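Postdoc handover notes: sequence design on the structure in folder B. Input tokens:
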């Protein structure tokens, strides 16, 4: 983001909701610049989504303004934002992304996943594994997160929850030890991944200790929300939440990332979410060049909602 700019321009586009986006000029950096570059690229201009408002981007903006009857000053101001977002409407309801952990890294050239190619595959976001239990850090987290930073891709970070093994305070501390500023533009809320955490998975032991497990989950979510200032996302499968955890109440206000690989138009979710989902992991058998098996996800709202959840625009 252009940190030397201290004001935002209000504009109305596509609905009666106002959104705030910054004035962009040469040498600005950040996800807002990457967003502009993506739109220009999709509109046929020769520009790559690097996140840096360079000379080539300014030239593309000038050409775009000229084509749309605007004065070609090369600045992305309120009127230019309106025209740009008409090319990728904020109210469009299809945003797609992937998620990454060491497994996907290790099957691709020893870990060097080509994040620079994600933009060309029309992907809007990426979740990466950060921590596991009370002590483990994904060995590729730093590489994955830094690459996504360089690409100015919308990103999220998840903690793989240890259901009973590790001290819950250590699990919270482990996640927070990554020192991620979740208030920054381009960062999605923290994620708690709740699923089988051992092989073989001792289902009977978990079921007989449901109350303990649920309270541990509740503690992690509350503590991380208090410290980061962001309401977390819960990742789970419907049958795990209902059959293994016993469909506990009091979690429906959290964002939901549901895993459901059935060929459906929309996923089935636990009842307390009232059919609402925020992310849907719809397959674990997707593919990208060099990676034969990767998880693909959809976002459950509009593009405006995704940008708002990632702190790139502010809905009012």
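Designed sequence:
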């Amino acid at each position: 983001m252009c940190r030397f700019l201290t004001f935002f321009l209000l504009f109305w586009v596509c609905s009666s909701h106002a959104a705030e986006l910054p004035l962009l000029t040469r040498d600005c950096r950040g996800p807002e610049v990457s967003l502009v570059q993506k739109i220009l690229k999709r509109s046929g201009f020769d520009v790559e989504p690097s996140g840096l408002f360079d000379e080539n981007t300014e030239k593309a903006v000038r050409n775009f303004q000229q084509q749309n009857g605007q004065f070609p000053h090369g600045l992305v101001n309120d009127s230019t934002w309106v025209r740009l977002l008409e090319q990728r409407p904020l109210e469009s309801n299809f945003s797609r992304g992937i998620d990454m952990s060491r497994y996907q890294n290790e099957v691709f050239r020893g870990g060097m996943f080509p994040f620079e190619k994600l933009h060309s595959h029309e992907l809007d976001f990426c979740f990466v594994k950060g921590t596991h239990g009370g002590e483990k850090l994904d060995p590729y987290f730093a590489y994955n997160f830094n690459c996504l930073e360089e690409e100015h891709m919308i990103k999220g970070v998840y903690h793989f929850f240890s259901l009973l093994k590790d001290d819950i305070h250590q699990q919270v501390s482990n996640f927070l030890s990554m020192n991620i500023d979740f208030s920054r533009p381009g960062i999605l809320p923290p994620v708690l991944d709740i699923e089988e955490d051992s092989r073989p998975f001792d289902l009977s032991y978990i079921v007989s200790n449901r109350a303990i497990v649920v309270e541990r989950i509740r503690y992690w979510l509350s503590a991380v929300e208090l410290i980061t200032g962001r309401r977390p996302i819960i990742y789970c499968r419907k049958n795990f939440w209902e059959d293994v955890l016993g469909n506990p109440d009091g979690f429906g206000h959290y964002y939901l990332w549901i895993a459901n690989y059935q060929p459906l138009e929309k996923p089935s979710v636990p009842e307390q979410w009232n059919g609402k989902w925020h992310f849907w992991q719809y397959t674990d058998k997707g593919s990208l060049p060099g990676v034969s098996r990767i998880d693909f996800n959809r976002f459950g709202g509009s593009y405006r909602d995704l940008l708002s959840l990632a702190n790139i625009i502010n809905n009012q």
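Context for whoever picks this up: The domain at 8-87 is CATH 1.10.101.10 (Muramoyl-pentapeptide Carboxypeptidase; domain 1). Don't rerun without checking with the PI first.
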